[in-house]
Design goal:
- By secondary structure, the protein is α+β, with helices and mostly antiparallel strands.
- The protein has one domain.
- Helices cover about 30% and strands about 25% of the residues.
- It is built from two helices and five strands; from the N terminus they run ββαβββα.
- It has a three-stranded antiparallel beta sheet, with no helix packed on it. A two-stranded antiparallel ribbon has the order 3-4.
- It is globular.
- The mean pLDDT is about 80.
- The chain binds zinc ion (ZN).
- Zinc ion binds next to loops.
């Protein structure tokens, strides 16, 4: 019996349609640096605000880092033009 590992990702729940929104890499980076800042006293409970656009209802809403939750499953990825451009530049960097 092989059991598939349960995939989880970090995201927020849309305030409009209650659909999960996966966190973009930039927000994950902010969150990670926030954790490192947590090593210093007095800064551990800093809450940051970031704006995310929901892919379902297309509404951009402000979210707090304290609203980040773990969501079961794999984030749905839509290959946007921006993502494709990122992939191309990553390939170029790798071959350089
Ligand atoms: Zn939504």
């Amino acid at each position: 019996m092989s059991q598939e590992p349960i995939q989880k990702y970090r995201g927020v729940i849309c305030q409009c349609c209650r659909q999960p929104i996966p966190l973009p890499a930039i927000v994950l980076r902010i969150e990670d640096s926030r954790r490192m800042e947590g090593a210093f006293p007095g800064q551990s409970d800093t809450t940051r605000v970031f704006a995310l656009r929901c892919r379902c209802c297309e509404r951009e809403m402000p979210y707090l880092t304290s609203e980040i939750v773990e969501i079961d499953g794999v984030p749905k990825r839509r290959l946007s033009r921006l993502a494709m451009r990122d992939a191309v530049s990553a390939t170029r960097t790798a071959s350089a």
